[in-house]
Design brief:
alpha+beta, 4-stranded mixed β-sheet, 3-stranded antiparallel β-sheet
């Protein structure tokens, strides 16, 4: 049975106080072809790269209220398959009471997320996956870029081709072939996801 609340893909969205800040972070990811780990909000200060299992069609709920739960998610990010991240060592987090953290083997403690619905601590909506890494290299053929609009996708392609052309002019190799932009995209507007770029 097919369910629209399940996905075989994982999404990493950028965050920022503004869309401009999130866009800069997105461009840094693209330039470095890597996601960098963080220990923010992770018990035990483990550095992880985090993803959400939420289907891309459900992003309107997450992006519709960018300040929900103090998370400023913005409409820029990357998507990879679960099987690819799993092969790299990524796993779903373990939602449990804070007191149960020490019961986990050391090798699994980075996966702990405190769950305490009695006191209003519930991040299960994120359906989070983590990989214990300082940095996760992104493979072009395994990664889909998430951008808010087709205009964003066109601009990235145009800037890439412009840089290649500029390089060929600077080096004097007139016959140099301008390579195609290597990434592929999903523009959220094509999925009917209403996003604000404030």
């Amino acid at each position: 049975m097919i369910r629209d609340d399940l996905s075989d893909r994982l999404i990493h969205l950028t965050r920022g106080a503004s869309a401009d800040e999130a866009a800069r972070r997105f461009l840094q990811i693209l330039s470095g072809r890597a996601l960098h780990g963080s220990d923010g909000c992770i018990m035990g200060q483990h550095r992880c790269v985090c993803f959400s299992e939420a289907p891309i069609a459900k992003l309107s709920v997450i992006l519709g209220n960018p300040g929900a739960h103090g998370m400023r998610y913005r409409p820029f990010g990357v998507m990879v398959s679960k099987s690819w991240l799993y092969s790299q060592g990524g796993r779903p987090v373990i939602y449990q009471a804070k007191e149960e953290y020490d019961q986990l083997p050391e090798s699994h403690r980075h996966r702990h997320v405190t769950y305490d619905p009695i006191n209003g601590v519930d991040f299960t909506w994120e359906r989070e996956w983590r990989i214990l890494r300082d940095s996760l290299s992104l493979e072009v053929n395994e990664t889909t870029l998430i951008v808010p609009t087709r205009k964003w996708a066109d601009k990235l392609r145009s800037d890439f081709e412009g840089n290649d052309l500029q390089m060929s002019m600077m080096t004097g190799f007139r016959g140099m072939r301008i390579s195609a932009f290597p990434w592929h995209f999903i523009a959220l507007e094509d999925l009917g996801v209403q996003v604000t770029e404030q």
